[in-house]
């Protein structure tokens, strides 16, 4: 389980009920580097990383049940009809969805849950879970850099890349819908900011009198990547560069 700061002593009645884990949702444009960030950020942590279902074909090196659960469109739609997804969305012709049951079980046992999903799905989670969902938008330093990363992957046609860029432009302009925005232009800094967000959100679940110096530093750093700190000019610079 994610190491969290010491909590206040529990009574015998409450000791059998662990504090509910955090639900952290990271999202952002394809090619922005979510997967690399997630792996570095969560290294050594016993969080529950939800594996999404998808109807798209596996890319080279992807493993079924690890990167995604790859299913047929028929199997996906049947799961959706049974209300088996916390969120699901269609993106560039493929379906993506997050199964509900394992997430609720992990949160109830006090384990942090991390979802890496599309923006539309993140908005669904926010609508369903409210403020319990900690939404983090991973932003590229510029659309030019995002284009370079997508082209360098060599996994999609030019037409699909243009569709992804157009969608990314729309998503970036809506960054204030998320609690935090982390710009992925320096991997070490971005990982540090995600770590600070996680620790800060744990601290906010406890009385301020229990906060440690490390908690307060995490809270200070997390506040610097609050979406409210971004101006319209900041967002315009990203989409126009």
From TrEMBL:
Which InterPro entries has this protein been placed in? GK/Ca_channel_bsu, Guanylate_kin-like_dom, Guanylate_kinase, Guanylate_kinase_CS, P-loop_NTPase
Top-level class of the enzyme under EC nomenclature: transferase
Q: Which UniProt keywords apply?
A: ATP-binding, Cytoplasm, Kinase, Nucleotide-binding, Transferase
Q: Which reaction does it catalyse?
A: GMP + ATP = GDP + ADP
Compartmental location? Cytoplasm
Under Enzyme Commission nomenclature, its number is 2.7.4.8
Using the record's annotation, list all stretches that form the Guanylate kinase-like domain: 21-199
Q: Has the keyword Hydrolase been applied to this entry? A: no
Report the GO molecular function annotations.
ATP binding; GMP kinase activity
- Where's it mainly located? cytoplasm
Q: Which residues bind ATP?
A: 28-35
One GO term describing the cellular component: cytosol
Q: What does this protein do?
A: Essential for recycling GMP and indirectly, cGMP.
Return the similarity comment.
Belongs to the guanylate kinase family.
Give the protein name, as stated in the record. Answer: Guanylate kinase
User: What organism is this sequence from?
Assistant: Deinococcus phoenicis
